[in-house]
Amino acid sequence: MVEGAFLAAITAVLFIISIYIPLLGTLVSFLCPLPIIILCLRHSIKFAIISTFISGILVTILAGPLQGLMVLLGFGILGLTLGFGIKKGLSLTDIIIIGSIASLVSKGLILLIGFWVLDLNTVLFDIEEIDKIITQSLNFYSNMGLSPEQLATLKDSLTQTISIVKIAFPGMIILASIFDTILNYWVARLILKRFGYKLANFSPFHNWRASKSFFWSYLLGMILIILGTVYKVPLLNKIGINIQVFFAVAFLIYGLSLTSFILERFKIKNFLKWVVYVLVCFRISYIEKK
Q1: In the chain, what is the straight-line distance between the N-terminal and C-terminal CA atoms, in Å?
Q2: At 144, phi and psi to the nearest 5?
Q3: CB 32 within 8 Å of CB 18
Q4: What mean pLDDT do residues 265-286 have?
Q5: Model pLDDT, residue 131
Q6: Where are the alpha helices (DSSP H) in 88-211?
Q7: Is the pLDDT of residue 115 over 70?
Q8: From CA 161, how far away is CA 158, in angstroms rounded?
């Protein structure tokens, strides 16, 4: 009981830090599910669930009910799922899959609360609100001394980016859920290793290979976009764009993996590898803008 209360308090403190301290809070947020995972491993899942609710109550007392709900949904669900998967001895692939699903569910619930309480629907999809955001951004850059030509280019870029985000929002949420799960598991593995827990590790990055189904899935996205455009079915168009966005990111990751494989063959040092990765990403971003 003492350990449960202690770890629940740690979860609450980590969450408070993650929402109130810029930059450091982002890094600390990946530690929030860790106490919950430890509770799952050292005690029963039921005990971990009770402790998670206690941490939510503590955050509610310290920061408010909305934040208390966020710790339950944002970190509690993912921490309990990862802890369950590790405790049951599931394979790394299965842990990432169920963790990603749990993260997606938690993000969906958070968005529903956001639409209901914070009126995020207006911010994300209302044209007037979007125009206000663009105008505020342009005023900021205008005060920094950008020329009218540069501001016009920036406006077109912002408008195009927001349009893509509005359409590809579901795909981006799915990608965020997968990355969130992978990063949380990776952090948990590094720290739990010091406590004597041996968690399955990811295969070396240079050995990652894309499945043939990725190519066919990307092609399916293209076909859906064409069909949606020809037959004027917006839903098919949106589904196709989301599929393409998802697998475009996947192909970028596997492209970097291939780059890593080549650099590994030439025994390039890790620091130089990261320099190459950054340059590749910047180059791809530049080509897309062109």
Answers
A1: 60
A2: -85, -5
A3: yes
A4: 81
A5: 66
A6: 92-113, 120-125, 127-143, 148-193
A7: yes
A8: 5
Tell how far CA 67 is from the center of its chain. 19
What the block records as the tokens of 8 is 């629940």
> What distance in Å separates the CA atoms of residue 4 and residue 49, rounded to the nearest whole number?
10
Where do we find the tokens 């799915």? 174
Rounded to whole angstroms, the Cα distance separating 181 from 77 reads 11
Tokens 């917006």 sit at which residue?
234
Token digits of residue 142:
């205008």
Judge contact between 111 and 124, C-beta under 8 A.
Answer: no
Q: 10 Å Cβ neighbour count for 65? A: 12
Amino acid type, 188: A
| Sign of the CA dihedral with 260 first, then 264, 270, and 275 last | negative
d(CA 13, CA 239): 40
List pLDDT tens digits, range 141-154: 777 777 777 778 87
pTM over 0.85: no
Total residue count of the chain as it appears in this document: 290
**Euclidean distance between CA atoms 36 and 3, whole angstroms:** 11
Q: C-alpha distances in angstroms, 215 versus 10, 175, 212?
A: 44, 17, 6
| Dihedral angle computed from the Cα positions of residues 273, 161, 22 and 139, in that order, rounded to the nearest 10 degrees | 120
Contact 69, 116 (CB under 8 A): no
Dist. CA 66–CA 61, nearest whole Å: 11
The CA angle 255-78-94, to the nearest 5 degrees, is 55
Contact of 103 with 181, CB cutoff 8 Å: yes
